[in-house]
Structure formats: C-alpha cells, structure tokens
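Hi Y.,

Following your request, here is the sequence exactly as I used it, all 175 residues.
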Amino acid sequence: MILRSAREHFAAHGYERTTIRAVAADAEIDPSMVMRYFGSKEQLFDAALTVDLQLPDLTTVPPGELPELMVRHFLHRWEHAPVDDALLMLLRSAVTNEKAAGRLHEVFARQVAPALVTALGPETAARAGGVFSAQLLGLAVSRYLIRLPAVTALDTEDVVRTLAPAIAATLGIAR
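Below is the corresponding structure, written out as tokens. Let me know if you'd prefer a different format.
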C-alpha cells in the first residue's frame, strides 16, 4: 500500500514535490511508518523505481516489422499501465532528479539495448539505440506528460503510421 501510494505521488508530482506526509496520508498510515520501512524519501523512491518494460521477444521479428511493433508496444504499455506505473514516475521525475534520470537510463540500457542487439545486431544497436530510445521517450513525454494537443489527438494508428517510418530510418531498416 505504501509503494502504490508513493508511485502515484511520484508519478503525479515528481520527486521534488512528493512528501512523506502525503504518501503516508494516502496509504492511511502515520508518516513514521513510511520512515520505519523505507528510512528516507530517497530510499522510498528507490523502492518505487522498479520498471519492467515487458518487451516482446524480438528474436523472430523480421527487421522490417520491428519499428511498428515497438511503437505499438510502447503505446500499449503507456495507455494500459496502472496509475502508479513506475515508468511514468521515472519520466516525470527524471527531468529534475539525477537519480531518476540515471535509473531511466539504466532501464533503457538493460532492457531496450539488449532487445535491439537481439533483433538487429550489436553494430546497429550501438549506432542507433540512443536515438531510437529518444524517439520513444519523446513520444511518451509529449503524449502522456506534457499532453501536447497535436499528439494526444492522434489515435494509435496515426502514431504508428507517423513514427514507425522515422524509427525505421533511425535504425537503418528498409520498409
């Protein structure tokens, strides 16, 4: 219950504006209990940062299908994630908190990069993986955090149709 409350607060307000008191109030416990279990706001934040991108197995995906598959996967992940999703919390917090930025980098380095190596080989993954990640994170920030009207107005098919070719170009994949 504490971690759920913490994730909701970190996702909604970021690290800087989340307080132990607010987390405790939502969890219907005394703030001292949060401190007892987690020790500090930083340790609570650490505990709340577990992210699994749930990437599909890309070993059998033809390279030409990879961009669309990944755009669809991330759209689905964002649009069907629970309110207390740790990835949303990380994105919102990474802008102002170095620890969150480091953890977000780690998530992409440990989950996305190996998936790209599996699908495209180490050279392509090393050359284009960062820009590929930036494209997906840019979509997430503009659609789910900033909520740019021109981006939120797009349905899933519009986003896929628009972004997949750009990702294919980034990865050097002929479509």
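The chain has a mean pLDDT of 90.

Thanks again,
Q.
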